Structure formats: C-alpha cells, structure tokens
Amino acid sequence: MNQITVMGMVLSAMPIGEYDKRIVLLTRERGKIPVFAKGVRRPGSALSGGVMPFSFGEFTIYEGRTSYTMMSASISNYFAELRGDVEGAYYGFYFMEIADYYCREANDEREMLKLLYQSLRAILKERIPNRLIRRIYELKAVCINGEAPQVFGCVVCGDSVRDGQFSAKKGGKVCVECDMDVFDGMRLEVSTWHTLQYIVSSSVEKLYTFTVSEPVLKELEQIVERYMDVYVEKQFKSLEILESIQQ
C-alpha cells in the first residue's frame, strides 16, 4: 500500500457496518475518490471530526489496489456556521451534489474544488444574495465541465455586434439574423448579458465580487435554470428540499 496526503473536501459520508464510514472526497490531487474511515463511529475516534460533510483540509490515506483508507485528517475549515443555518446548509449540500455529479476519479478537478470552496465561503460572508451565489455556481460548474454557453457572439454565425436572444437549446446567443428556428429564446437586458459574460470568463477567485439588480437576477435565474434543464441530466435531492423550505 502507498500512503499519500491529499487536500480536499468531504462531499458525503455514509455508515458502513457497525463502526465504519464510507466518505467521498473531492481532492486536488486525485479528483473524486471514495475513502473508507475504519472505526470512525467508535466513541473517541480521532477521525470523527474529519469525515463530516463540508470538512476541508489535508487527509492522509492509504491507497490500496481497489480502495482508499483514511489514516488521519487535518481540517482547516469545517464550515461549522452552515450547520446552524438550514437554508445555507442546503445550498451547500446542493453545491456538493453538483460537484459529486460532475467530478471523476483521476481527473483534474482543481477548478471544481476551488469553486465549491469559494462558493461556501460566499454563503457565509453574506455579501451577495444566496440566489445569486446559486446561479453563479451552477453556471460556472457547467463551464468547468466544458459546456459553457456562447455569450460573446452568435452560436450560428459568430457575429458579436448584432442584437440577439438567449437560447438554451442552441447553446447561447443567437443573433437577429439567425433566430428563425429559435423557439425557446429570451431577450435579455444588456446588464444580464454582461453578467453572463463575466461569470463565463472570470476566474473563480473573482466570481463573488459583484451584485445585480432584481430584474437582472430574475433573468439570470430563468436563463441558468433553462440551461441546466438542457445540459444536466439529474434531479438533485438537496435542491428539492432547499426549494421546499423557501416556499
């Protein structure tokens, strides 16, 4: 067996047998990996604090032929404040579900890990609305996965000057000369186009540095929701709960 140290975040944890847990780690070095934490449910286990969802830090694990086993954890951020905020916690669970959906073992998932970490921090800072954080996260996650919408020019002809509308099914902006067969198009405020362009093109570190007006936020919500419906083939349980508690 090979002992390695990885940096990452616990996406989920589930009991295995009487005393163990199986956790899913999103790591900088190995992508998304399943890790067994043996004896972690015994009273006084030194690993108990390192296997809770949201826990971020360094994990020392053994790499076996078919599985990983956790040996120790040094947690730098538990995001403990989220546990006292029901709505904030479910935003976090939803973000982790999306990360789990997209990420794979042995892939370079550094950008997704960074996005997840910065998004949880943004929820805690409360500088911008959670509704906006959600749409930024969703759209950027899709972009990191290689399915970014075209928002700088027409998806058909490439023109970047003419007015146009956003079509989720077409994959982005369609100009007025090419929109004859667009049936799901939305005409957007100029500020909404600028917001989409900023999210698509900016680094993760600069994502949560702005806010928008309510009309722009509503358009952004509609656009991202439609885009997710087309490109994400999964129903997220945490999102269903989040939307139910917001009603």
Could you explain the architecture of this structure?
The structure is a single chain. The chain has 247 residues and is an alpha+beta fold. It has 2 domains: 2-78, Nucleic acid-binding proteins (OB fold (Dihydrolipoamide Acetyltransferase, E2P), Beta Barrel), CATH 2.40.50.140; 83-245, Recombination protein O, C-terminal domain (de novo design (two linked rop proteins), Up-down Bundle). It is 35% helix and 23% strand. The strands form 2 sheets. It has a 5-stranded mixed β-barrel with strand order 1-2-3-5-4. Helix 1 packs antiparallel against helix 2 (110-125), helix 2 (110-125) runs antiparallel to helix 3 and helix 4 crosses helix 5 (214-231). The model has no long low-confidence stretch (mean pLDDT 95).
